[in-house]
Design goal:
Blueprint: E1 7-9, E2 18-25, E3 29-31, E4 36-38, E5 43-52, E6 55-69, E7 76-91, H1 98-106, E8 109-112, E9 116-118, H2 120-128, H3 161-165, H4 168-191
Parallel strand pairs: 7-8
Antiparallel strand pairs: 1-9, 2-5, 3-4, 5-6, 6-7
Length: about 190
């Protein structure tokens, strides 16, 4: 993953005042828990920081275009995303209970000791939560042939040779053999 840091010194913001940050980050990819996704555009951000005594309220927008695979045919899709950035930075208290920490995690509260913050995680997080659970190249995507893997969107009438060579009975007998083997294996282990 490309190294990205957006470090901001909050100490220069006077109490009751706002600061604005706008810019672009040129990353090659974003890492998710399940995949590394290439970026097709810079990460554009607009952030507003409001200081209220020792608290800093962060809000704004971030947008980018990611390359993401279609859930049906696996072709790459340019996925334009726009997310909201929201967080509250509070001075770290001397003592805090576990219950308070858990509650404030839900409210997106971040405790600080120094007045310099790296906001890059907030930007990436705002993009990642906007990725839909199912991405399609087009609404009527036909997907891929389950036998040979051919993209059915690229072929008017697909006639799979592998599918025509296999009868439904062959699949069922193969599944039955697997189920019997699995049952025998479990019985043998229980006998020990």
């Amino acid at each position: 993953m490309s190294e990205f840091s957006l470090t901001v010194d909050f100490s220069s913001i006077p109490d009751g005042e706002r600061a604005y940050i706008e810019g672009e980050a040129f990353l090659s990819e974003i890492e998710t828990p399940t995949a590394t996704l290439p970026l097709r555009s810079p990460l554009h951000y607009e952030i507003q920081i409001l200081r209220n005594k020792e608290d800093f309220l962060l809000s704004g927008m971030v947008s980018a275009v990611l390359e993401y695979p279609c859930a049906r045919c696996l072709e790459s899709v340019d996925l334009a995303l726009s997310g909201q950035i929201e967080a509250t930075y509070k001075k770290s208290p001397k003592k805090i209970s576990e219950e308070e920490i858990e509650l404030e995690d839900l409210e997106n509260v971040i405790y600080y000791e120094a007045m310099t913050f790296d906001l890059s995680e907030r930007l990436i997080e705002a993009i990642l939560v906007e990725i839909p659970s199912k991405v399609l190249c087009k609404e009527d995507c036909k997907g891929i042939c389950p036998y040979c893997g051919e993209n059915l969107n690229n072929v008017a009438e697909h006639r799979c040779k592998i599918e025509s060579e296999l009868s439904p009975g062959q699949f069922l007998s193969a599944l039955k053999r697997i189920a019997i083997d699995d049952t025998d294996s479990n019985n043998n282990q229980n006998d020990k």
